[in-house]
Records
---
Amino acid sequence: MDSERLIVALDVPTFKEAENLVDMLKPLGVTFKVGLELFFSEGPRVVEMIHSRGGKVFLDCKFHDIPNTVAGAARAASRMGVFMFNIHVSGGIEMMKAGLEAAREEALKTGTAVPKILGVTVLTSINQGILKDEIGIKENLEQKVLDWAGLARLAGLDGVIASPKEIRSIREQFGPDFLIVTPGVRPRFASSDDQKRVMTPEEAVLRGADYIVVGRPITRAEDPVKAAVEVIKEMQGGV
């Protein structure tokens, strides 16, 4: 279903706000992203709530630590039964492999499905100037995303998180089976907020995104269901 390819970011601070949004949007068949604010405010019970309503969860906590610590976090994510979680590629191949192997082992032990594991490349709030002047990476931004996507693939991850601007290059280099999850997507009716590298849902799908992530244009809309339906329609225009 096209609607499953829309990941709604539940970037809200309370369980009740998240619950209300899930109750409104779950009938559309969308996937839900639980990020740092909500997860650290309310904990795993948010994931359990979404699962209890038949929803799928992308746990967006961007693991980045020594391999042993990331392995432990990956086991916990796998035990929760999340559909997808992510790891920072900049932590290196050993760290990514540790997370992947731990998640697979835990899924086998608990009889749950193995989560999709995605590598975080360059955050969508970062542009070329920030990458060079603040972070100290002189490389062209798109090339750095491709380099890190290559490391994620080498580590055995299922795909990457990347901005809409890099979708086409990643798809051309790594083929149709490498998942691309794309934040920084803003429907025609919304502003770009703090995202630097943005694109519409239709453009993102046309370029080859498997999933798109949309938060505030839906969750802060006067009518979140109507906004989500509009995003799905825009996505379908790109299929």
Note: The longest strand covers residues 57-63.
---
Amino acid sequence: MKVYISADMEGVTGLVGADDVQMGGRDYERGRVMMTEDVNAAVRGALGGGAREIVVNDTHSTMRNLLVEDLHPAASLVRGKPKPMGMLQDLDASFDAVVCVGYHARAGRLGVLSHSFMGHEIEDMWLDDDRAMGEIGFAYATATALGVPVVALSGCDVACAEVAEWDSAVRTAPVKYARDRFTARLRPADEARSAIQEAAEAGVRDAASHPRAAPDTGDHTLAVRWQSASVAQQLEGVPGVSRTDDRTVRVRGELPALFRLFGVFMGVAYSLTGQPPYC
């Protein structure tokens, strides 16, 4: 079994505010420790479920958050940016399962540190015109398009409910319960990490015992509504991209290619807005 772990930070045990997850924040260094421990719990679970190779992708912000010297020795690490495939860098059809650690709810949901990729700049995203999604949905759809199942996810209770809307079979580990966007009731850290380990172990074991779905090679539509009309106007210059209104762009293609193209979209948006997350 070959297992891929995509690790974000906003959904990590104990973290609730921008200072916990932004480089330079007063509690960021503590947040790095908490993130590393959550990932290690997922690695232990994957090993218990039968994994023989584990790749971890650090996907948050600078993508240099995990403490390399403290990462479980069974895992290799994809670290740094830019990454052409961002949160799914190095994922391909050779993997048997995906585990998402520290994920958060999409923009507009009342989950802890909820947003979609870029703080307030991305207001809404849709797959195939009518299915609202954020990072959870986009990662799930892209992984399954490659034929690799998402088997477990940790984050706040709202994030866990969000992945269940995509696939109720995904094992979830709620590590905190949202009370507002920057407030949560926290599970004790040891209890939360036990839940992550159990979800990862059960999910990887499920993947080993079930036949894999065929890859999805069909075309899909990605639509993104930006806060800034300038972003949409600039993106209209990308071949295949059209504007459906002043702030919304639409493009069609295969899912892995759309995921990579979306990374280009974000590069354009960052260059125009310079907006920090969570403002």
Note: The chain has a mean pLDDT of 96.
